[in-house]
Amino acid sequence: MVALPSLRGLQAFEAAARTGSFAGAAEELSVSAAAVSQLIRTVEEQMGRKLFHRVNRRVVLTEAGVEMLPRLTVAFQEIGSVARGGDAFRPRLVISVPPSMAMGWLSERLAGFVARHGAADISLRGDDDPVPFDHELIDIRLSYGPHYREHPTEEIVRDAVYPVCAPGLAGAIRSEDLAGLPLIHTDWGPTGASFPSWRNWFEAAGAEPGRAGRRGLSANSSRAALDLAVSGLGVALAQGIYCARALEEGRLIRPVARALDLRQPYCLTIPERSARRDVVATFREWLIEECVRAVKSPALIANRAGPASLR
């Protein structure tokens, strides 16, 4: 059996790396900073690996230390749960999704996951890309586009955008008449992916947007644009994954059938340190099921007129 390094030393290393100093670890562990330093030296000797660079009075993680930290943090959190006993031992799951998905779409569905698979300590994060997987101990990331080649990433679903508006706004509308309605524009900003514009949609429909293609309300998130449409303030281009439920419930309608395929797929990224955890595998399967169900909603597929591909 391979000799294990000092558990107390590993605890000292994890606390020092997480808090950023030996003094912070010492306060957390109720020992002196000198004791923390000695415990970490002992672990380094036992493992034959340097975990910190000591520069003057500062300490900086080595590559070995960066690799160890997230695994140890998870391990000590699990040990803490076991020590508390009883119902306190629940799986921990850190989920990162785009902000629009965190604000409503996924938060409305998580109760279904818990009801089916049991309680878990879930941290739901709404993050723009890129996300710090190891620093925030993220277990699973859903993103628009394959951003994370350094971690295992899979394409799970492709979506499109659909013109949607409140029922009272639509009336009898033909494709060419949309230019006469107030339009809601979505702009993900200079660091985000390019979101299909109304000009793209009118060009695909063979129509001229005129000034309407530039005027109207503008939002910097898909969720905000969708909320504006539900409020009756205009027609938005909304991803199917977000607007399917509102269409099914009648809060929104599709005034015209044409849609535009998005340039990139939605992807799931799971770092290797999390891939073998049962709760992560279970959540992955459930999340893919929810995403596919949304983009294949009958409210989106019905009367979909030969969607143009946006390249």
Layout of secondary structure:
Layout: H1 7-19, H2 22-29, H3 33-47, E1 52-55, E2 58-61, H4 63-84, E3 92-97, H5 99-105, H6 110-117, E4 121-126, E5 140-144, E6 153-157, E7 160-164, H7 167-170, E8 183-186, H8 198-204, E9 217-219, H9 222-230, E10 235-239, H10 240-248, E11 260-261, E12 266-269, H11 272-275, H12 278-295, H13 298-301, E13 308-309
Parallel strand pairs: 3-4, 3-5, 8-9, 8-10, 11-13
Antiparallel strand pairs: 1-2, 5-12, 6-12, 7-10, 7-11
Helix pairs in contact: 1-2, 1-3, 1-4, 2-3, 10-12
Concise synopsis of the structure shown:
The chain is of the alpha/beta class. It is built from 13 helices and 13 strands.
Give your account of this protein's structure.
- There is one protein chain.
- Helix 1 (7-19) crosses helix 2.
- The longest helix is centred in the first third of the chain and has 22 residues, at 63-84.
- This protein has 311 residues and is of the alpha/beta class.
- Mean pLDDT is 84; it is low at 304-311.
- The protein contains 13 helices and 13 strands.
- It has helices at residues 7-19, 22-29, 33-47, 63-84, 99-105, 110-117, 167-170, 198-204, 222-230, 240-248, 272-275, 278-295, 298-301; strands at 52-55, 58-61, 92-97, 121-126, 140-144, 153-157, 160-164, 183-186, 217-219, 235-239, 260-261, 266-269, 308-309.
Keyword list:
alpha/beta, five-stranded mixed β-sheet, 18% strand, 311 residues, single chain, 13 strands
Q: What is the structural class? A: alpha/beta
> What integer is the average pLDDT?
84
Helix content: 40-55%
Number of strands: 13
Strand content: 15-25%
Our count of helices gives: 13
Q: Which stretches are low in confidence, meaning pLDDT under 50 for 5 or more residues running?
A: 304-311
Ends apart, CA distance between termini: 57 Å
Please tell me what the overall shape is. elongated
For the largest sheet, list the strands in their spatial order: 9-8-10-7-11-13
Largest beta-sheet characterization: 6 strands, mixed
Order of helices and strands: HHHEEHEHHEEEEHEHEHEHEEHHHE
* Radius of gyration, CA atoms, in whole angstroms: 25 Å
